[in-house]
Amino acid sequence: xxKTALVTGAARGIGLETTKLLIEQGWQVAMVDRDxxxxxxxxxxxxEGHAFLHDVSLPDQVAEMIQSVGDKLGxxxxxxxxxxVADFGPIEETDFARWRRVMAxxxxxxxxxxxxxxxALRETRGALVNIASISGLRASTLRVAYGTSKAAVIQLxxxxxxxxxxxxIRANCVCPGPVRTKLAMAxxxxxxxAAYHDAIPLNRYGSEREIAEVIAFLCSDKASYVTGxxxxxxxxxxxxxxxxxxxx
Length: 248
Fold this sequence. Notes:
Blueprint: E1 4-8, H1 13-24, E2 28-33, H2 36-44, E3 49-53, H3 59-73, E4 78-81, H4 96-124, E5 127-131, H5 144-164, E6 170-176, H6 182-187, H7 190-199, H8 208-219, E7 230-233
Parallel strand pairs: 1-2, 1-4, 2-3, 4-5, 5-6, 6-7
């Protein structure tokens, strides 16, 4: 039986690219998203991509999702908690409803999906890969909810590694830096793009494929002794801190 990965937020972006790469590597993938139109369109051309329409922020839907994936695909060898929302704004303009909307998907969803998947992952001695962000490692303006949610995902990953290791379950976290997604390119001005290029040692944005390669490695047996790790796939952005680009 083929290994099965469950990927949340699989309808687009890093989630979809990870799905495609895992399929190339011989996996079957449970593609989870709450955007039905985008999800089913994305799954149409993928023979080993199986669509599951669920909202990971809702406990009842998460329980139903895990049951449905197990019934249809037979096993779960890896869970990629990629679903997330990006909502940026000043602290003073972030009301509690906005705060909770970010936390519900970015943090609660990771906790709920991971917890629900533990029985299946115990059977396969599988892997959890949580997708945080460079914004969880370094603070910047306008990201009070987003950055805090991603920092919490990093800590949650370490808690999972510490507690689930006895079952053979590995838990690791990937923190993407600026990635050349359609959304980013639509909202980043030429000035923002130039500033990122100046601040990143590799002088460019990453690609969705480059992030997917790290995720797929952590899902695989090649990472069989890797757990509790936080890997920034960011072109060196985090390592430069707040140093002036011209002096790095």
